[in-house]
Amino acid sequence: MPYQAAPKTISPLVTRAQLTLELTQRTLGELLGSSMRTAQRWAAGQATPAPNQLKQLAIAVHPRDAELAASIGATIGETLESLGLVIARAPELPPAAPAPPTPSPELTLLLVEAVVCAAAEALDASPRVVRAALLAGLERAQNAHLTVEAMLDALRPTPPAPKPRSRRVPIAR
Question: Which end of the chain offers a freer environment for a tag, N or C, measured as fewer CB atoms within 10 Å?
């Protein structure tokens, strides 16, 4: 059962809603499906509107005073979202990291040359030979839609699996 505040707590909210909507006690009672006398009891704190009436009141008040609508909803354990009056906002995502700056064409040539030389040194081969091999391999990778990260992961040696421990049982002497 939803929470509902005491009549003395709800009475000022009902009165504020009545004034906000510019209603008489008669029209307030009619809006919520009750009589003028019942609306008078609400105003005096002698009775409390039913939860469905408070929902109706919050919905009616929301376009003019969202804060009051939220307070009325809270008396019955509702929020503006649960009443369908507002859509809950998704949490804001942190801003994406900026893309690294694109190196100049001159710097790109120097970086590529450094990669070629590193490969040549690892192979103990001429950079001229390695350059052609790297070009062929990179073109094939690009055609296969491989990323540099995927290639690095595939080319790095995997560490050997740990050997299972042998269970030696001590020999009793």
Answer: C
Tally of CB atoms within 10 A around 31: 17
Cβ–Cβ under 8 Å, residues 13 and 71: yes
Q: Number of folded domains in the chain?
A: 2
Q: Do 69 and 109 fall into the same domain?
A: no
- Distance between CA 167 and CA 127 in Å, rounded? 52
Place of tokens 């839609």: 145
Nearest Cα to Cα of residue 17 among 74, 47, 59, 77: 59
Reading the chain (173 residues) residue by residue, the pLDDT tens digits are 455 666 678 999 999 999 999 999 999 999 999 999 999 999 888 999 999 999 999 999 999 999 999 999 999 999 999 998 888 776 777 888 888 888 899 998 998 999 999 999 999 999 998 999 999 999 999 999 999 888 888 888 887 777 777 667 667 76
Identify which of 48, 78, 58 has the alpha carbon closest to the alpha carbon of residue 16.
58
**Domain with 51 in it:** 7-74
